[in-house]
Write a structure and sequence with these properties.
Layout (H helix, E strand, L loop, with lengths): L1 H25 L33 E6 L5 H7 L1 H11 L2 E4 L5 H9 L5 E4 L1 H11 L1 E8 L6 E9 L14 E4 L5 H10 L12 E4 L3 H10 L4 E5 H10 L7 E11 L2 E5 L4 H13 L4 H6 L5 E4 L2 H4 L1 H9 L6 H16 L1
Parallel strand pairs: 1-2, 1-3, 6-7
Antiparallel strand pairs: 3-10, 4-10, 4-11, 5-8, 5-9
Helix pairs in contact: 3-9, 4-5, 6-12
Length: 335
């Protein structure tokens, strides 16, 4: 009898393996996407499942915005848009407060999150690991909104050049952040400073926490997104005169807005229309540096500079890299 069960077990395992191999063979191109997804049209994002039974059309749409700052702040800022999205799609819409990039990506990967705004770096992980399909960034009539990687330090301190970072304690935000970690690791060596080697890296968790930490003296300097810094200055959270900017990079796209790859195509099209047709109110324009709309983008081309930065730094946006970054992010939060 035991032998029979063992044989049945082997047969079941062989069947599962055969199914997995068949699924693998059915996908002609995957690129860096996880094995759950396929990219046969070569646009670098997950294709809609061929099996219509896997298409999702939930009665309640759950959406979130990147936890670059306090999620509660953005839930309030986006409240008018959340109401618009509900009316436009004729569905109940819930704003989900996420506390980390990894948590947001996992929520979409597991099917709990249908639409989301992802930070620049995490966008690529969301695409490859969670099947996210980016379709917009904040922008204006003729162009999308971008930001620069800047390095801030106290104006009263003695750090005036990038070389002065050597031997200092520098706050990076989180492992998956473009401006807060990946871009510095790729770009700073060209400036004569290598993170970890020339200065101590401490993860703060978020851009605003890096900025406030520099102000309080917890860190000597911090690479952050210029748009976050500028918003904090406008809100009166910090004074521009208290800081010195010793580095500024070229323009990167800001956070993307993406939907899950398996949304029913009719619903996905409706969501895109709801985003593209919406115009920001005064509070949103003030919060987002004058941007007044969701500007259509193409992930393959718009995110090329971000992928290039990662490649230059020897990084990737595949599943293995994501798991490593998620572990580092979790460890950083415990400190």
């Amino acid at each position: 009898m035991k032998t029979m069960f063992r044989l049945l077990g082997v047969a079941a395992a062989a069947s599962l393996l055969s199914g997995a191999v068949t699924a693998q063979a059915a996908c002609k191109n995957r690129g860096e996407l996880d094995t759950n997804y396929c990219d046969e049209n070569g646009d670098l994002v997950a294709d809609l499942p061929k099996d219509q039974k896997k298409w999702k059309n939930p009665s309640t749409l759950v959406w979130a915005y990147t936890p670059v700052e306090d999620p509660a702040v953005y839930e309030k800022i986006f409240a008018p848009f959340t109401a618009h999205l509900a009316k436009c799609t004729d569905k109940k819409v819930v704003f989900f407060q996420v506390q980390s990039n990894a948590a947001e990506i996992e929520a979409m990967r597991s099917g709990r999150l249908h639409v989301a705004g992802f930070s620049t770096g995490p966008t690529a992980f969301a695409v490859n690991v969670a099947g996210a399909v980016p379709f917009a960034v904040k922008g204006y009539e003729k162009d999308f909104q971008g930001y620069n990687l800047i390095v801030v330090t106290k104006a009263s301190g003695n750090i005036r050049t990038m070389a002065d970072l050597k031997g200092k304690k520098v706050a990076h935000t989180s492992p998956s952040s473009n401006s807060g970690n990946m871009a510095p690791r790729a770009l700073f060596p060209k400036e004569g400073v290598t993170p970890e080697k020339d200065y101590t890296v401490v993860y703060s968790g978020k851009h605003d926490q890096s900025i406030l930490g520099v102000l309080k003296g917890d860190y000597d300097a911090a690479p952050v997104a210029s748009d976050v810094y500028e918003r904090m200055v406008r809100r009166g959270q910090v004074k521009d005169s208290d800081f010195r900017i010793v580095y500024r990079s070229k323009k990167f796209p800001t956070s993307s807005f993406a939907h899950a790859h398996d949304l029913d195509p009719k619903l996905a099209d409706k969501v895109l229309s709801c985003f593209y047709d919406y115009r920001f109110n005064d509070e949103m324009k003030k919060a987002f540096d004058g941007a007044d709309r969701f500007f259509p983008i193409n992930y393959k081309t718009t995110w090329a500079p971000v992928r290039d930065v990662a490649a230059a730094g020897g990084e990737s946006f595949g599943k293995a890299a994501y798991q490593k970054e998620a572990e580092r992010e979790a460890a950083a939060k415990k400190k």
